[in-house]
């Protein structure tokens, strides 16, 4: 089973129709068996994910990302914001330690200063813009300001009266922050970071917003929401929220600052009061979102203009507090096995979707060689695995070490047992991966036959060598009741233009 996200490379730096959009992923680490940074990067590379957003600037993760070409957004955690926003020297030290020390080997392209500060940490709001400016000044001093953009992610709940989008405006109480923030983004040619969660808009509407409208499913023309002021048709919540942000910025006289969606997704599992947090809906939303973004569809207000988006998130974070849905936004489980296979067929040449259900069993990184040898002996003996390809002179003899040989034997047993649960454990020294461990002429059982690279030393396995980066706060998303009522009226009426 494998999911392939083939992602484009350019970050939008201005609102223009000639730039390609990209899909990235957020990497949270509230995972009980968090894979090591090396394993995380192996998964990113195997899935051709070229853009990632980290919730901090973890040194081990940044080192693992070095020389991969993957474009990285690092973050200043909220708890460090007050110190950086009040001290130019503190900001400079943060940049020196977390950015300058890693570039150019690690391709850092953006710094997210805080996360949803106005709604989750309002006491830090007065220093937010100062923090951005201090961070940017440190980049200028190192001649990195042309390569690395500085911004701050916002919850879409700071937008009031978000439907119709043409009437949207930012919460006026934040004008002392928003106006200088927009001036900063404009002057540095950065972008407005926005978190967009149609799932919460849908859930909090109590049935007023149709599920299809939230999931990007096709709507008949008479069910599309129409902005009476602009006569623009809206077929999904995502576009409506993004355009509401564009209109809110224009209300403050800023019309040339692009938007990058820093978080969007759909949970695959929820509590009993969240019946629409399902694998099918998560698959539908994320598959349609990826197609929508990579096709450069744009929004009704800015058709054809990139709205690059980071999917929330790479892994299911089982250690997050809160309802069941908080733990189930990931595309993958911690062992690298997809939660679901994205429906990407027909999305064009920029996407490839492997639905051959390929998973492999490999030796777990850092396992005791003696335990590996004992497991290898069992697999080739009582386990009845055909280990003849491991004999000297045979196609899988090289490399001649217990890790490589046990990986072959573990996988052969796993495949022979039809990948049944529990058949890839071997007393804790084996784990499942979606990366084909075949190499050269050595084709592993279960392989599609394509050439691969031996990856048994960086298998996508849980590891005690986990990163310590922070995850974002619990999702807090408030939808204006007036907005819900207007959307509901439009979506349930027959409107022809």
TrEMBL record:
Broad class of the protein's primary localization: membrane
Top-level taxonomic group: Eukaryota
UniProt-listed GO biological process terms: carbohydrate metabolic process; defense response
Disordered, as annotated region: 437-474
Signal peptide: 1-17
Lipid bilayer topology: Lipid-anchor; GPI-anchor
SUPFAM superfamilies to which the protein is assigned, alphabetical: (Trans)glycosidases
Key words, A-Z: Cell membrane, Disulfide bond, Glycoprotein, Glycosidase, GPI-anchor, Hydrolase, Lipoprotein, Membrane, Plant defense, Signal
Alphabetical list of InterPro entries matching this protein: GH, Glyco_hydro_17, Glyco_hydro_17_plant, X8
Catalytic activity: Hydrolysis of (1->3)-beta-D-glucosidic linkages in (1->3)-beta-D-glucans
Location within or outside the cell: Cell membrane
Biased composition (Low complexity): 453-474
Family, per entry: Belongs to the glycosyl hydrolase 17 family.
Name under which the protein is recorded: glucan endo-1,3-beta-D-glucosidase
